[in-house]
Amino acid sequence: MKLGHSGIEVSALGLGCLNFGSRTDKETSYRLLDQYVDAGGNFLDTSNNYAFWNEGCIGGESEALLGAWFKERGNRDRIVLATKVGAKPTFAGGGFEHKEGLSRTAIERAIDESLLRLKTDYVDLYYAHIDDGNTPLEETLEAMDGLVRAGKVRALGCSNHWTWRIEKARSISLANGWTSYCCLQQRFTYLRPKPGADFGVQISLNDELLGYLKHHEDFALLAYSPLLNGAYTRSDVALPAQYEGLDSQARLKVLAEVAGETGATLNQVVLAWLYQGIPRTISIIAASRPEQLAENLAAPHLLLSAEQLHRLEQA
User: Fold this and answer.
1) What is the pLDDT of residues 55-85, one digit of tens each?
2) 310: how many CB neighbours lie within 10 A of its CB?
3) What are the catalytic residues?
């Protein structure tokens, strides 16, 4: 799939590396990375703050693990690598309330630190991770464009941004001849959050943003948490409270019907629906076991009928 207007081609599914190097140990992380690449995947997603909330972590553990894997495998040039800036705490033990933000200083420092950990001299896709209302957009966007001009970054994206901020950012970049955001990574899954649902620093895709994306085909959509951490299929994982209600019950009923008709799992139907919908969505999947990853990687091969897609959409 094309990554917006960047010209970069990526796999239908990206592999999220959030817990690699922390909760997921080196041996398991390497096994999952190898499995993903052997299956034809080429799109790895990490961040400079992954995963500071895990015990004993300060952020950067995922990038460091990937850097070691690139060095051992010698395959950096075959991977589309995405990382992020803006949400790493400024000191050990800090939280999102102490995030680095998107100032010029923070961006320029963060990219150099990420490149060192990743053992590479460039990143294919660099995200503004969480919007920073305390820094002028012009400062953020000029700094990000400077990274592209310096050859440290190939393309730019944003994550956890509201529609009006995305449009304002893209307009500013266009007016100044700067590299503009080519994609958005947002919380998105088949179930719809309840009105007013609060996800903290995370922003879930809403109807306004969905409509915006449908009319901007040069702007790609990527979904994080598409499988709700296993809540669709695992009895030991509760449905997040933000999704509880009659609407989700109705959607889960149709999801189960389509899964029965196709012989696929609920997770596979969710990922297929995202991939075959409008706008077509690149899901960032995660796994801690090879069998989980194998299940997810089969999803793009599941072809849903027009009637099934319509039924899923209208539920």
Assistant:
1) 999 999 999 999 999 999 999 999 999 999 9
2) 11
3) 50
